[in-house]
Amino acid sequence: MAEALEFETGQDHDWMSYALELARRAGSAGEVPVGAVLVRAGEIIGEGWNQSIGACDPTAHAETLALRAAAVRVGNYRLADSTLYATLEPCPMCAGAMIHARVARLVFGAADPRAGAAGSVFNLLQTDVLNHRVQIVSGILAGDCGSLLRDFFRARRGKPVVRAESLISAD
């Protein structure tokens, strides 16, 4: 199986920054802060942020909502030649939806060592047994994406959020 690529373009950085804005929207609503934006030919065709809790919908992940919005916008469930930017490595459900939609490329920030389906636990996006493979670029703004998630879960558990900057003495 192919490995995830570890490079970034300026566009990847910019689109991931936007996905982080969407993730913050999810966090503000009490949802797990994950955001996703689907881009084709330099234009946003779909975006989403986690809404599973508020929508009472286990499939309302950022990635699936971005795919749904894009499919409606372009009038086709096939989203060839598109790139999905997600702040967290997609789960198996979202990876399966990306394959069915024929997304060309995934760029994600933080790895998900518990449920990641783009190389951490599984690599559904590049397996030879399925009929479509997705190019993967990992680690774009991984620190920012990971911090947002860690801070959210620490706050949820009632533990104080400690920033690295606060550990540096002001001497």
How do you describe this structure in short?
The protein is an alpha/beta fold. The chain is built from 5 helices and 5 strands; from the N terminus they run H-E-E-H-H-E-H-E-E-H. Strands 2-1-3-4-5 form a 5-stranded mixed β-sheet.
Record keyword descriptors for this entry.
171 residues; alpha/beta; 5-stranded mixed beta sheet; 5 helices; disordered N terminus; disordered C terminus
Account of the 3D structure:
There is one protein chain. The protein is of the alpha/beta class. Helices cover 36% and strands 17% of the residues. It contains 5 helices and 5 strands; from the N terminus they run αββααβαββα. A 5-stranded mixed sheet has the order 2-1-3-4-5. The protein is globular, with a radius of gyration of 16 Å.
Integer-rounded radius of gyration = 16 Å
Rounded mean pLDDT is 91
Give the total of beta strands.
5
What is the string of SSEs from the N terminus onward? HEEHHEHEEH
Helix content: 25-40%
How far apart are the termini? 50 Å
Broad structural category: alpha/beta
Spans of 5+ residues with little confidence (pLDDT < 50)? 1-7, 166-171
| Continuous helix count | 5
Layout of secondary structure:
Elements: H1 10-28, E1 35-40, E2 43-49, H2 52-55, H3 62-74, E3 83-88, H4 92-101, E4 105-110, E5 135-138, H5 142-157
Parallel strand pairs: 3-4, 4-5
Antiparallel strand pairs: 1-2, 1-3
